[in-house]
Amino acid sequence: MAFEEEAISVDVAGRLRQLREGKEMSMRALARSSGLSANALSMIERGRVSPSVSTLYKLADALGVSITRFFGEEPTRQDVVLVRAGERTRVPFVRGVWEGLGGERFSGRVEPFVLTLEAGGSSGNSEMVHSGHEFVFCLRGHLEYLLEKERLELEAGDTLLFAAHLKHRWRNPGPTVVNALVVLSGFSEARAPHPIPRPVPK
Fold it and tell me: Which of 27, 90, 102, 179 would disulfide-bridge 81, Cβ 3.0–4.6 Å?
């Protein structure tokens, strides 16, 4: 898809270091707060490994910021947001990419993303929960959601809508790339504009 080539990739390692230092947190303190090992955190900050989505959520939670802060500095919220294909930003993770569709700049309570997953790509080993609702539209490939104890399989054209306080995670079990539109909405107004999905402790 053309937009995947035109999108602007975010330097996750650099953004993580910038956010950590901005909070005046040592690497050891962030490792403690996020539940990651100091070695794993060091590898991520040096760009040696790409974090999973659930790891990004843990780091955002430990830093007390929205996951969208990995897309860049907190922008001014607007009532109207137009995002050109070449202006779209993306956050890479293990075997996949999250692409922001302007929700990080929007004043309302909605966050749309495009999710691209290579074969075997997933959100990580941890289940996640957050406030509001999650809508998924599978555009291409075979996307599997584990929702509480239920395994749901989506093919191109299928949609899924659920209350996001339910434990969930997702993966691409097929041999081809998955593309999906994911929209988070209706999250608590008292919280940050973008809900921070929290991995559920084992």
Answer: 102
